Amino acid sequence: LLPEAGFITEEGSAVYSGEEYCWVIDPLDGTTNYIHDNAPYCVSIALRNRTELLLGVVYEVCRDECYYAWKGGKAYLNGEQIHVSDVRDVKNSFLQLELPYNYQDYRPTIEYVFHELYGKVSSIRINGSSAMSLCYVAAGRFEGWMEAYIGKWDFSAGALIVMEAGGQVTDFTGNEHFIDGHHIIATNGYLHQSLLQLVKVVPPKL
C-alpha cells in the first residue's frame, strides 16, 4: 500500500525524506491513559502529501469506535456518517483543553484560557488523547479542543476527520495551513473565532 510513501511516527521509526506521500502514524495516542488503564487511548493513522491531509483513521480501543475520513468524502464512525454539533453560543459549549509537556512555555496561555472559560461554558474536560479529542469534536460530542506543542502524529488523522465532519481546524494564529505546525485548535466552526481570540491574547511561544 503506497510502498513509495514515507513515514512519520512518534515512536522514533520515521523514514521520511520529502516523498510525495507520507503516512503519519501514532500507534498509541493517549499513552499515559493506557498506562493507568484509563480511557481514551487509540491508534491514529493519516496519509498526507506535501500540502494537505488525504486520509485519516482513528481507532479507539476501549469503546470499539473506528473514526475515518478521506478528503472530500465526509466523516464516519463505525460506518455511520458523523457531523460536528450546531452549538453556536459559547456558554452552551462543551470544550476540551489539554496540558502538554512543555508546561513552562504553555502555562501563561492555558491559565488565561481556563480563567476566561471556567464558569462561562457548559463544562471543560481534559481527555489525554489529542486524536480522540479531535474525533469527539467531529462526532458532535464536544464543540472545541485546543492543544499546543504536539506532533503531526497526534493531530493529522483527527484533524481531517473534523474537517470532513463540517468543522474547522487551524493553528493558533488562525492559519488553515496547519499540517506542519504544533499548536492546533479544532471546533464545530461556529465557536472557532471565540477560542482563537483567547489564545491570541496570550499566545504560546512558537
TrEMBL record:
GO process terms (BP): inositol metabolic process; signal transduction
Bilayer-crossing regions: none
One Pfam family it belongs to: Inositol_P
Record keywords: Hydrolase, Magnesium, Metal-binding
GO molecular function: inositol monophosphate 1-phosphatase activity; metal ion binding
UniProt feature coiled coil, ranges: none
EC number: 3.1.3.25
Reactions catalysed, as given in the entry: a myo-inositol phosphate + H2O = myo-inositol + phosphate
Cofactors: Mg(2+)
The protein, known as: inositol-phosphate phosphatase
